[in-house]
Amino acid sequence: MILKSFITTAKRNFNKPVYFDSFGSSLTFGHTLTGSILLAKHIRNLEGENIAVVFPPSLGGALANVATAFAGKAPVCLNFVAGKEEQKYVLKMCDVQSILTSKIFIEKAGIPHDKRMVFIEDIKNKISKKKKSLTYLACKFRSKNSLIQEFSDYDLPDKNAVILFTSGSESTPKGVPLTNQNVHAAIQNFSTIFDPIPEDIFLGAMPFFHVFGFVVCLWLPLLMGLGVVFHPNPTEYEKLGRIVHEKKVTIVLGTSTLYRGFIKKWQKEQTSSIRLAYAGAEKLNDAVREKFYEKFGIPIYEAYGMTESSASISANKANDFRHGSVGKLLPGINGKIVDAETYEELPSGKEGLILLQGPNFMKGYYKSPELTEKAFHQGYYITGDIGKFNDGFLYITDRQKRFAKIGGEMVPLSPIENKLTHVLDEKTEEEKRNCAVVNIPHAQKGEQLVAFIVYPNPDKLSLNSSLDKLGLTKLSQPDHYVCIDSIPLLSTGKVDYNKLKQLALQQYT
Predict the structure, then answer these.
(1) Is the dihedral of CA 105, 108, 109, 113 positive or negative?
(2) Average of pLDDT values for 236-252?
(3) For the chain, N or C: smaller number of CB within 10 Å?
């Protein structure tokens, strides 16, 4: 599983750098293995089986997570930018008694002190130079099989590798325990997407509490012998552009929203090392894809994953893609399209609810048997996404929850946002996302549409007239436009639809 694979890769690439940060520091595979084992001896003595790990994407954060695995504990990657109530909910659900973090980080981030906090700096100060040297030599010269055997009890297939929580962009976060087998299977799938070469370096700006950050940025390089450069803030677009150039990043991962910022702030000469760019977590806006290619000559390939699937489901590949789709299902993953009410399987090309299964999918939500029962149908995970298969490629229309029911008709919200983005792009040079649409109750029509836009004094008649010219039906045109300073985003780059819906409800009900 993941510890065995990491040890095997580390022994083969002992002196090769694996982790870099944007401040000039780095760790080799050998130092990462050594540091993880040293820290693990102290983490193993912390109270509780689940350890909250609170770090940004960084060398220390990576070591803390890997060391927690070597300690036989399950890291709970806490979303430190979430609200206090959400954090309390997560900590209580997971019965967290120890919070592993950094003094420097919590001071910079303004995170209140908690008596359960254990600081990585204090643990490091307890480890003598002699102990560090001896452990380093042991990692280098002990046999691979000896090291694997020592940690085999912590590397069992069904042991939790992490407990993540869904982003909460549309509902209350749910605990998702991913096992060693889940994470290992996902990484094997990703290897078929990236066709990695030894020189590959990922841009690792996604937070570790996001499934892409944990699986792809944190663990995948360790298992596949690649590199990754961490930066704590994915929205510092100019800084990320410099990092891509200086570190010769070859693979970029981001959301449609993040790529929008990259287009505005990156220079073409900074991107010469990039060989692959992938988008996920939200639908890739066509205009973003086209503008990124126009400016940099680099195509963005869309992929599909979710927390419950360890981030991997389907992906386009450089030699096998269809723009507008999320690619073909990855090896070992089965999928079908069913009627959303009867669950009767639909023929190819017919749109319906997407059901999936595979070795990378969680077995169920953490301590939530009722939610788990509702999440599966005859062994298939119910994604909540609406889509179809054409020639083996999966196309996603929208989230099931991202439909409005107006006058008895189901109206998808993503196409409205896409067209409205196009209209606003003609009027402003805003580098960040410039609109989001939510649906709220309406006494006569069933539901009404509220568009939040980063544009002063919006005129409904003018904007809807522009949408009309783009072919958007009257039924799909927003009922209200609200000017907002910026579209609220979660730390993953997704739109915080929960927050927007609450704002809309306060204003229009």
Answers:
(1) positive
(2) 96
(3) C
pTM, full prediction: 0.85
CB-CB contact of 193 with 378 (8 Å): no
CA distance 43 to 66: 11
> 363-377: buried (b, 16+ CB within 10 Å) or exposed (e) per residue?
ebbbeeeeeeeebbe
Alpha-carbon distance of 375 to 363, in angstroms, equals 10
d(CA 355, CA 174): 19
Domains of the chain: 2-234 (3.40.50.12780), 302-399 (2.30.38.10), 407-508 (3.30.300.30)
Average pLDDT value for residue range 115-133: 96
Closest CA to 201 of 139, 132, 253, 134: 253
Tell me the per-residue pLDDT of 303-337, one tens digit each, with 9 for 90 and over: 999 999 999 999 999 999 998 899 999 999 999 99
pLDDT of residue 171: 57
Taking Cα atoms as reference points, which of 217, 218, 282 lies closest to residue 251? 217
Task: Provide the phi-psi class of 332: left if phi over 0, else alpha when psi is between -120 and 50, else beta.
Answer: left
> Residue 369's pLDDT is what?
94
